[in-house]
Amino acid sequence: SSYYENALALQPIEERARVDGEVHRVLGRGGIPFVRLVATPGLPAVDPRQAGLFHTAFLFEDRAALAGTVLRAAQDPRSRFSGTGDHLVSEAFYFADPEGNGIELYWDRPRETWQWSGGQVAMDSLYIDPNAYLAEHLTEAVAADPGIDPGIVGHVHLQVGDIDTARQFYIDTLGFEVTVGNHPGALFAAAGGYHHHVAMNTWNSRGVGPRAARLGLGDVAVTVPTREDLDTLVTRLKDKG
Fold first, then answer.
1. What pLDDT is recorded for position 68?
2. With 0-12 CB in 10 A as exposed, 13-18 as middle and 19+ as buried, what is 51?
């Protein structure tokens, strides 16, 4: 939790200890939860070849807020910087936390600039010079206190063993729509015309089965607009077994 507080400028929102001694701590910004950290000693470490989390992506409202958080993350010696990406729809910077969980920090370009064809959105992974980006977009106010600007979890990217199996669950059963289906070893999906709320890839995990208990991803919470939406999802899940 000290990493997420210091490197990503998140604030504690909630903490509770269960009778079994397990501690849950929620961190976020502006009262909006980003992550729930659950202390579970004794589990094996994150295995980058297993199914689970590829990265959690934190979305910021403007480039200054993104730049301030990128600077804070880069200054924490526990961060592992893993690259940048101009994805045409967004600008992103990638890190890993001390236990190897992937983190994406990003800003969305305006939706009217996204290019769609045949129901799929154009995305790429072009290099962004991080020093040039900070020089252009960082402000003194945000550099001094990057936590002043809120954000949300924009999407979650998962490692899976098989794309077709993931498609059957996330698309056919839950009802997400494919937004990028032609990227080698990956599938991107969303609701409401977003570029992606969930992505799945087999780049490191092709052919693996269900994940054994280990550190890493516990669960992902998907918020739907209404109770009727939730009831519909429950029905779909029951119908699909």
1. 95
2. buried
Asked whether 187 and 166 are in contact (CB, 8 A), the reply is yes
For the chain, where are the E strands, in sequence order? Answer: 11-17, 23-29, 32-38, 52-60, 80-86, 90-96, 102-108, 116-117, 120-121, 151-159, 177-180, 186-190, 198-201
DSSP 29-41: ETTEEEEEEE--T
Say what the pLDDT of residue 42 is: 87
CA distances from 193 to 58, 85, 121, 197 (A): 19, 21, 9, 10
Could you count the other beta carbons within 10 Å of the beta carbon of residue 165?
Answer: 11
Exposed, middle or buried: residue 130 (CB in 10 Å: 0-12, 13-18, 19+)? middle
Please tell me the distance from the alpha carbon of residue 69 to that of residue 233, in angstroms, as a whole number: 35
Is residue 47 predicted with pLDDT exceeding 90?
no
Task: Determine if residue 39 is left, alpha or beta; phi over 0 gives left, psi from -120 to 50 gives alpha, anything else beta.
Answer: beta
For residue 170, report the phi and psi dihedrals to the nearest 5 degrees: -75, -35
Q: pLDDT tens, 159-208?
A: 999 999 999 999 999 999 999 999 999 999 999 999 999 999 999 999 99
Q: How many CA atoms lie within 13 A of 53 on its CB side?
A: 22
Contact call for residues 190 and 197 (beta carbons, < 8 A): yes
Is the pTM here over 0.85, yes or no? yes
Are 91 and 111 in contact by the 8 Å Cβ rule? The answer is no
